[in-house]
Amino acid sequence: MLGTTVIEYLLVTQKNNPMATGAFTRLLNGIIVAAKVIQREVAKAGLVDILGYAGRQNVQGEQVQKLDDFANTTMINRLQASGEACVLASEEVADLIEIPPKFKKGNYAVIFDPLDGSSNIDVNVSIGTIFSIYRRVTSGDGDGTLEDLLQPGYKQAAAGYIIYGSSTVLVLSAGNGVHGFTMDPSLGEFILSNENIQIPERGKVFSVNEGNYNFWDDGARKYVDYIKNPAADHKRIYSGRYIGSLVADFHRNLLQGGIFLYPADHKDPRKPKGKLRLMCEANPMSFIVEQAGGAASTGDQRILDIVPEELHQRVPLIIGSKKDVETFVDFHRGQR
Ligand code: P6P
């Protein structure tokens, strides 16, 4: 029912699940509160001295902006305080993040990108928080371990993102479809606005940084040449839309149809598999897109089947409308 808050929605859906104890709702409430706090800072980022670089680099070797730090600390604090997480990991932090003794430890492991697309902060482009939730697999009620996090994406209990744009929208899937909740600033609540989102089977938009064209392998180049050719057998004119913020590009394609590509490229020998991270970008977005009827692949395999080897590993990401992703895979495998 539209007009429902996200917590009311969870309580209703949880009511129908005898296994539900309220733990998941308490964990997600931690993320919701963090999102509200982050959104407040993002909204005024241009007004206070929170812009500019914090003068340090994150584990990816990228300059960290102050808002990155703030979002990271906020997510960590709220998830720890929820009492429902046993271990955390962040795109901004090299190693696992433990739950301090003063907090109860729960049965969920959470990995997140606290502010993805943060290089766009200074130019007022939409950015977002991305999160991925797993059930712990280690026994006991003590600290979680790397084993609780390095699970293949198909084992996610839930995944979602918050996009801080013209409006602030939480998109969430707990395995029963994908639902969007838009922040009502007058209430300070996320209100159900898009129930059971389904991505069109084929889109008319492609999102890729063509500046990397000469660093791609043949399959990626041939695919992009193909969709840019209106005389090709797809019989449509694709529009190129690339914002350079995964959450923004993904969200548009989820609602309107389309394909986002960050193929492997040979530009940076340190990143032979492309730029995007498996655990805190590719897996959560792939979980969501499959729940919405779409697909996500490296070109060689389904993203959600990848058995992770390390927290910050990178993967090629081809994601969006099912038929568009399938066509890319054909080109990638040299079958077209
Ligand atoms: P490029 C932002 O830094 C990010 O991780 C994603 O949000 C975005 O899709 C991608 O990098 C953009 O990368 O190399 O095209 O600037």
Describe this structure in words.
The structure is a single chain. By secondary structure, this protein is an alpha+beta fold. It has two domains: 6-194, Fructose-1,6-Bisphosphatase, Chain A, domain 1; 205-332, D-Maltodextrin-Binding Protein, domain 2 (3-Layer(aba) Sandwich), CATH 3.40.190. Helix content is 29%, strand content 22%. The chain contains eight helices and 14 strands. The protein has helices at 6-15, 23-43, 66-82, 146-149, 218-227, 246-256, 278-291, 322-332; strands at residues 53-57, 63-65, 85-90, 108-116, 127-135, 156-164, 168-173, 179-184, 189-194, 205-207, 239-240, 259-262, 295-297, 317-320. It has a seven-stranded mixed beta sheet with strand order 3-4-5-6-7-8-9, sandwiched between helices. It has a five-stranded mixed beta sheet with strand order 11-10-12-14-13, with helices on both faces. A two-stranded antiparallel ribbon has the order 1-2. Strand 6 (156-164) and strand 7 form a beta hairpin. Helix 2 (23-43) runs antiparallel to helix 3 (66-82) and helix 5 (218-227) packs across helix 8. The longest helix has 21 residues, at 23-43. The radius of gyration is 19 Å and the shape is globular. The chain starts with 5 loop residues before the first helix and ends with a helix. The mean pLDDT is 93. The structure holds 6-O-phosphono-alpha-D-fructofuranose. 6-O-phosphono-alpha-D-fructofuranose binds at residues 116-117, 119, 209, 244-246, 275.
Ligands, deduplicated: 6-O-phosphono-alpha-D-fructofuranose
**N- to C-terminal distance:** 45 Å
CATH superfamily grouping of the largest domain: Fructose-1,6-Bisphosphatase, subunit A, domain 1
- Which consecutive residue ranges, at least 5 long each, have pLDDT under 50? none
The major sheet is characterized as:
7 strands, mixed
